[in-house]
Amino acid sequence: MAEQRVQWFKFASPPNFYDLAGRLAPWFGGLAAILFVVGLYVGFVLAPPDYQQGNSYRIMFIHVPTAWMSMFLYVLMAVYAAIGLIWRVKTAEVMAKAIAPTGALFTFLALWTGALWGKPTWGTYWVWDARLTSELILLFLYLGYMALHAAIEDRQRAANASAILALAGVVNVPIIYFSVVWWNTLHQGASITVTSAPTMETVMFSALMLMTFACWMYAIAVVLWRARLELLERERRAAWVLERMGEKA
Amino acid sequence: MIEFLAMGGHGPYVWGSYGVALVVLVAELVLLSRRRTAMNRRLARLARLNRENGAEPSPDS
Is the minimum CB–CB distance between B18 and chain A shorter than 8 Å? Predict the structure, then answer.
């Protein structure tokens, strides 16, 4: 147990985190590229048109993964923000800040692709349905978190204030997820749950899973990359940064 | 090929979704890469200043 704690703190130290993230990020990036190519091939070439929706259902392969990511990343961001707030772990603060832009981006894509899927299937780009509205609030939470971080000059106060905002916003995530159960509106319920078999063809399900893993790998790579830059920025006068820059020069 | 791009009349919706996703993800990568270039330049300048002064970096440099 004692040894595990030492290990954990070892990777939480900025120079170790910086080096480890630098070694891991390219692997996640490479995996993301491969998974995107395979996922798109299965989704566009192998999967047949849907008997009801025709080809518009193929938007699902980008809509559902981005929507899942928007919620996962928010929770992850809040967890890191909490670790930073409670235990003052610098790398956790950096990770929370690094997740926000990618989370906002996936939220935007979920809304955008949802609108373009809504038009041919529902006949409208937008409706103030509970699922759509709560997902829009998620986008504002991400943007608010980033704006708050940028607005406060003192780094520690910025991290604390935005961490509290991130934690308060977590309440929105179950609202998004269960909105289709709690309110009976236009957006359909979940086709895939942990407790039952998916209600779709295996080939479609495979494409969806491949694209989901691709989005995960992409998000991990980009967040690690951004976290490294964030660390360099914060620690630019620390000896470990100067050492690494000296090696490069 | 034309038939594939048409997506049975749903082309604009399907390609509008994937096209914007591609643009947004690539834009994020480009922005990050530019930020890294700017950061490297800044750190190189800091390192040079430190060498020239021959001193430990001061907290307000």
Answer: yes
In a domain, A146, yes or no: yes
| C-beta of residue A73 within 8 angstroms of C-beta of residue A219 | yes
Residue range B28-45, pLDDT digits in tens: 999 999 999 999 999 888
Domains of chain B: total: 1
- Give this complex's ipTM: 0.88
- d(CA A237, nearest CA chain B) in Å: 6
| Amino acid occupying residue B40 | N
Residue B1 C-alpha, separation from nearest chain A C-alpha, in angstroms: 12
Whether residue B34 is contained in a domain is answered as yes
Interval A52-96: pLDDT, tens:
888 999 999 999 999 999 999 999 999 999 999 999 999 999 999
Q: Between A51 and A162, where is the model more confident?
A: A162
Which of A59, A232, A242 is closest, CB to CB, to B50?
Answer: A242
- What global pTM score does this model have? 0.91
To which residue do tokens 């834009």 refer?
B27
Instruction: Say whether residue A54 is in contact with chain B using an 8 A CB cutoff.
Output: yes
In angstroms, the separation between the Cα of residue A214 and the nearest Cα of chain B is 12
| Domain-embedded: residue A228 | yes
Is A8 a member of any domain?
Answer: no
Closest residue on chain A to B25 (Cα):
A105
Could you give the CA distance from residue A153 to residue A165 in angstroms, rounded to a whole number? 17
Closest CA to A98 of A113, A109, A84, A110: A84
Q: What gap in Å lies between CA A166 and CA A173, rounded to an integer?
A: 11
**CATH number (domain holding residue A119):** 1.20.120
Is B58 a member of any domain? no
Q: Is residue A151 part of a domain?
A: yes
Ramachandran quadrant class, A47 (left: phi over 0; alpha: psi -120 to 50; beta: rest): beta
Domain span holding position A156? 25-47+55-190+198-232
With CB atoms and an 8 Å threshold, state whether B28 touches A101.
Answer: yes
Is the separation of the CB atoms in A158 and A167 below 8 Å?
no
